[in-house]
Amino acid sequence: MDAFYASVEIRDNPALRGKPLIIGALPQERGVVATCSYEARKYGIHSAMNIKEAYRLCPKGIYMHPDFEKYRAVSDRLHEIWNTYAAASETIALDEAYLDVTETAGNWKNACAIARTIKQRTREELGLSCSVGVAYSKSAAKTASEEKKPDGYFEIPTPQAYVSLISERDVRVLYTVGEKTAEKLKRAGIRTVRDVREQAEEVIRLLGKQGQWLTRLASGRDERRVVAYKPEDAKSISRELTFQENVEDFSFLEDVLLLLALSVERRAERVSLYGEGVTLKLTYADMKSITRSRLIPSTRSAADVYAEAVRLLGEVPKKPVRLIGAGLYHLRGDEGRQVHFDDLLPETEQRRREVIHAALQRLQRRYGLDFAGHLQQLFRGETLYRTVEYMRRHS
Length: 395
Known about the structure:
Elements: H1 4-12, E1 21-24, E2 33-36, H2 38-41, H3 51-57, E3 62-64, H4 68-83, E4 88-93, E5 96-100, H5 102-105, H6 108-126, E6 132-135, H7 138-147, E7 153-156, H8 159-166, H9 179-187, H10 193-198, H11 200-207, H12 209-218, E8 236-247, H13 250-270, E9 274-284, E10 289-299, H14 302-313, E11 321-332, H15 346-367, H16 375-378, H17 381-393
Helix pairs in contact: 4-6, 11-12, 13-14
């Protein structure tokens, strides 16, 4: 998709069209840019940029918090359209996927027709544009999809066409080459894809197995298959929040963990997964991050996540905290999980509900919040963030 979050907001509010729109933190907050419109990119703004730097570059831009629930709903519809045409679909993100249409298309001409149909349906049914690359391999398809953005379409039919296209480009164009790897190669005088191909032995000496992969890729060879995404392949389900001011009150952090646990439970239910471990993440004011975890019987209950996260919180150094997160790991579906005996008892679920109800009542009394009938809205990213900031100011 083209600037996905920003495009959804512009679609829903046409007054934003043609303006520099930045989705992420607000200028007065801590945080980064999640994405931005193409008008904002003209100012040098990009994803993961510190929001203060973005504001320095574009003080007249429009800054908004992301609405992840809305984006997920749009994403679900997008993938429904895309997957109609694929024998296998590998989801990369809410707004991106590899589609294997070898069987459904049968030949190159039909594959290109499918690509154009996907673009047309995405625009007509959702009012959004996407950039599609048609190619013989995953790496070439990724390059092709980025070649004519936004609203692009590009074909790379053969390895020779791919090599011809990228030979004089920076090594960063090759899949898995990040900033550090590129710097290591450039210190050895290897700057372009052609250099990788012509100095293959040196690349392998420098990078080992990754070097072997890069030399193959620089020659257009990529045999990776499109692997259908399964939610259980995810390593964890988690939720975290960054505070606008450092927090020293650990009882307040316990209250935040309750809301995070509820959010984790909802995400786990949505993908029908259970976790066999709970994690706690903290980033302190000095930017040092720590993670604590503990194995527990299989669960996705907010009460279990909350109880274990609070126990883990009691074991960490008591210093000012900038960020807190909680999550589940060792994920399993219904078939793969080990059911604990207590889970078979009806009173176990009743006890969990009572724990959460009592904890929410405590928050209601402490902060003057009313969760009755509004708990589902709380899981929207901006609503949760604003609720926690309200709690922090009134703690």
